[in-house]
Amino acid sequence: MFSKACEYGIRAVVFIAEQSQINRRPNILEIARAVDSPVPFTAKICQQLARSGIILSKKGPNGGFYIEKESSLTLADIVSCIDGPDIFTGCSLGLPECSSAHPCPVHFQFSEVRDALKDMCYNTKVTELSAKLRNGETFLKLPLK
Amino acid sequence: MFSKACQYGIKASVYIVSQTAMGNRVSLREIAQSIDSPEAFTAKILHQLSKQNILASLKGPTGGFQIPVGKAQTLKVIDIVAAIDGDSIYAGCALGFDYCDENRPCSMHSKFAEIREDLKNMLHDTSLFELANGFDNGLSFLKR
Q1: pLDDT of the residue at B98
Q2: Residues A48-67 pLDDT 10s
């Protein structure tokens, strides 16, 4: 559904949000380890997210990535930043001009699923996901052996 | 959502079904023109689909690609997606973990489960024959 970069991006932001709740600012190495992603790719994705203002970064010895505790950031912000808005609004078969008046063959079958995905992403706050990570209801990697 | 290859694969299959129903076998060039896709990339995708028995390619002067009507009625969009993109889009974890399940859910698991199920059902219930019918009747389009 999402690109690999977007999957890692969501994982990273949820982890950063969880750490922000306890006033920590993880660096790239910690993030990559916590969400099971390759370090260089994670660095690239976090840079992109920081440039777009999705996550914040602080330099220096206590520096790292963070988000505001009361952030209203949603999944849609992350997905749009990394994969672009096409997944929510574009044609699923890639037609440049697809609409109900000029539909691609799967337009009507697809619109319901796409709208559900869009609603879910726009209505899911990152802080909601990070709270569940914090209290152990959800996970971002395998348990340590 | 789908890869570019998968988008072209679905469009090409719809076009081939519609042409086979009219008794035509179609050439690579005709397919690429009809669905507005690059020829070399399309050739690669069609080769992949014929290797998986989704379509047949016949050589010779009257040769070309075809999908028999009987086959088109049983062929679903999910078959094309599985052949090109694999099943991760409708069966995998939204965050790409291969060890995500209800007992150890990832952060998006419960949010995503229903959407993925709906997507799977939709892909599984939509036949190429019905899509080609809509295209034949001018109700849907494969380019522009």
Answers
A1: 86
A2: 999 999 999 999 888 999 99
Give the minimum alpha-carbon distance from B22 to chain A in angstroms, rounded to a whole number: 18
Q: Could you give all domains of chain B from N- to C-terminal order, each with its CATH number?
A: 4-136 (1.10.10.10)
Contact A23, A34 (CB under 8 A): no
CB distance from B116 to chain A under 8 Å? yes
User: From start to end of A24-83, where are the E strands?
Assistant: 56-58, 64-66
Query: Do residue B143 and residue A124 have CB atoms under 8 angstroms apart?
Result: no
Q: How far is B5 from chain A (nearest CA, A)?
A: 10
Q: What is the pTM of this model?
A: 0.90
Most confident of A32-36, B57-61, B68-72: A32-36
Question: What residues have CB less than 8 Å from B116, skipping those under 6 apart?
Answer: A1, B90, B91, B94
Q: Under an 8 A CB cutoff, do B95 and A11 touch?
A: yes
- HSE-up of B60 (CA within 13 Å, CB side)? 2
> Chain A: nearest CA to B61, how far in angstroms?
31
**Two tokens, residue B127:** 């036949």
Tokens of A13: 């932001």
